[in-house]
Write a structure and sequence with these properties.
With 180 residues, this protein is mainly beta. It has strands spanning 3-6, 9-12, 16-20, 36-40, 47-51, 69-73, 85-90, 95-97, 103-105, 109-117, 130-136, 142-147, 166-170.
Length: 180
């Protein structure tokens, strides 16, 4: 469990609560009946795990929360729950911290984001910033038909099934790849 006893000293590498019993060698009746409780806390951040299930084609809805899972560990693999993790985004507006401590997307844009641990770290830390790019696009393309005009009646000759359409399609954020 990570507890090392050397003579009258002890050390621990696994975070948790420990009970320290004191006794006199050769005199079991002189043992401590109310042991001291020692709490071992996690050390400084040494490494982390960032899970962000993002595909190259993913697009997020405005108002959604970013699906990050961030876990920070010390040198001995204890989870560090009080590490400060900050998110930086370009553009800066549009991603805000939500009530649950995560981040929510409040504006449509293409974002470059970086997560980093900003609290003090273990001198041998292997933590590098995590970077990703994402798109927030909640509005569909806009179709403007020029022909046939709205409300017009189409009369099709026998056997003809195709209708010619003229107009424009635009999208405020995404470039259009194909129309069919």
């Amino acid at each position: 469990n990570g507890l090392v006893v050397q003579g009258q000293a002890f050390s621990a590498t696994q975070a948790g609560m420990y009970s320290v019993f004191c006794s006199v060698s050769g005199h079991p009746e002189a043992a401590d009946e109310s042991p001291a409780a020692v709490q071992v806390l996690a050390g400084l951040p040494h490494k982390w795990s960032v899970s962000f299930p993002l595909q190259a084609s993913d697009c997020f809805w405005q108002g959604a929360s970013l699906p990050f899972d961030v876990f920070v560990f010390d040198f001995w693999d204890n989870r560090v729950t009080d590490a400060t993790v900050e998110l930086h985004a370009t553009p800066a507006a549009g991603i805000v911290q939500d009530a649950a401590g995560g981040w929510a997307l409040t504006a449509e844009a293409d974002y470059d984001i970086t997560l980093e641990v900003t609290s003090p770290q273990d001198p041998q830390s292997t933590i590098a910033p995590f970077a990703a790019s994402l798109r927030v696009d909640s509005t569909p393309p806009v179709f403007a038909l020029a022909m046939p005009s709205t409300g017009s009646m189409l009369v099709m000759p026998d056997g003809q099934t195709d209708v010619a359409i003229q107009g424009t399609v635009t999208d405020g954020l995404s470039s259009l790849v194909a129309l069919s």
